[in-house]
Amino acid sequence: MTDAPVVRLANVTKTFPQGNVTALQDIDLDLVPGEFVSLIGPSGCGKSTLLRVIGDLIEPTSGTVTVNGKTARGARNDGDYGIVFQDAVLFDWRTVAKNIALPLEMLGWDRDRRSARVREMLELVELGAFAEHHPWQLSGGMQQRVAIARALAFEPALLLMDEPFGALDEMTRERLNLELLSIWEKAGSTVVFVTHSISEAVFLSNRVVVMSPRPGRIAGIVEIDLPYPRTVETREEPRYFELVTAVRELLRSRGEHLLPEEEANLA
Amino acid sequence: MNAAVASPLPRRPARRAPIVRALARAGLVVGVVVLLLALWELYRWIWTSAGWTWPFLVNDTSMPHIWTIFKAFGQPAQVNQPSLITVLLHKTAFTAKEAAAGFGIGAAIGFALAVVLFHSRLLQRGFLPYIVASQTVPILAIAPMVVVWVNPKLPGPLQGWGAVAVIATYLTFFPVTINTLRGLRAADPRAVDLMRTYAASRWAVLWKLRVPSSLPYLFSALRLSATASVVGAIIGELPTGLQNGLGGAIFNFNQYYSIEPQELWATNVIAALLGIAFFLIVVLVERTVVRRAPENVA
Lengths: 267, 298
Description:
The structure holds 2 protein chains of 2 kinds. Chain A contains 9 helices and 10 strands. Chain A has helices spanning 47-54, 72-77, 96-106, 111-124, 140-152, 170-187, 198-204, 238-253, 260-265; strands at 7-16, 21-31, 36-40, 62-67, 70-71, 81-84, 158-162, 190-195, 207-212, 217-223. The longest helix of chain A is centred in the C-terminal third of the chain and has 18 residues, at 170-187. Chain B has 10 helices and no strands. In chain B, helix 5 packs across helix 8 (202-240) and helix 9 runs antiparallel to helix 10. Classes of the chains: A alpha/beta, B mainly alpha. Chain A binds chain B through residues 55, 57, 76-79, 81-83, 85, 87, 89, 91-93, 102-103, 105-107, 126, 133-142, 145, 168-169, 171-172, 175-176, and chain B through 1-7, 9-10, 188, 190-191, 193-200, 204, 208-209, 212, 215, 290-296.
């Protein structure tokens, strides 16, 4: 994978004037096309802020963000990425199908093209039978799959995910991890995945970017050399446990700034 | 929450047939009305037989019998005239026309005003206090001016009742503006971020996100405005001297109250029913238009 990076972060720093907080300091990171990268760290390490900087929802105080060779603003205006938040953020007055069609409406697709794509996406996330349901009639896991379908509907090169499964129970989360991987393998997008679960980060990613708080910096990057496709058995391999341990150690060693309760959250 | 596995929908508990539910609700409404009428008669009976005069003397003038009021509907109010109910229904149609026009125009103005104020902090700071102040002026105090200003400019078919509709508008727009403004602000900030990732224009954010989010707020306001527009139309008829509507009827019957109180009471019943009808129409429209999660319905 020698292509130009999909995302290039150079010297990115973000300070919030209120309370004089340095959320991010001197972040340098390149993402290659098709790669699955997780950002992990304790709360307050700036991982969500970093994701929002990439998506141009927050402007960095200094440094440059390049997405698909454009500025972050240019990439946002061109609809170069899809985004998934911790909550599904579906429009409850729209049906599942209309929710998935929302970005396509914004792109000016005509009705036939929209409905064909929506059908494909519903198949992809296995919700074909629920097209005409309203979001509140679905479980939390199903809602999050609708949000993923919506984010991927216009085939963005980049998918930004901000703790997308953080509000779900462990069982649902593990199943959605598997589904996300199979969707990712089919769609071929580059994924930036924010999480505070070590096992989730290791299971999903090509690389895990470990961040430390106050100020938010990159503490280290762990290459995950587990082969794809990953399955339920992957979680039982010795190499998986070694990598989980490696990420945990890295979080610990750079965790001198952690408060005791934050340390406990990393378990 | 294991429901994501090709899962069955979370089912609502089984409910009775719609017809049975509708009948049960209608029965409840009728029951309450009967109870209130019975209380009226009971109060009359206790106060007259005990001879109590506090807080007021109870007799056929202050509290006519329920049946006297209902009998009045069938009798002509004046000699050589159709029955009171026929006359009142014509007047009700007239007042309903004024109120409906006022409600429609008021809702449209109220909504447009909210959208404009939402998009301009400056206008909001400058104008909102005066919009609030406009509602502290009693409607009776400004109604005569509205008639004098508006009536001469109106084309023939709108003469008279058009000015009353303007007065109803004045009472209608305010709750719509205030609630819609609040509803537009109530859009989920994460949904606003989502729209930003689509590079959505202000216009798209307004129509695809903010307006649908504000609908429960808008309809709360419309329920208030529906009844306010009827009150506005009735009051507006007084300074115009219009005799075709319920306001004129109330004004007339008021003057003969000591002789025939049942006619004013009968008119009041009809006026109340008109207000209720307006309210129910708004509720029905809301049911068909607003599709929101149960927790988001006002």
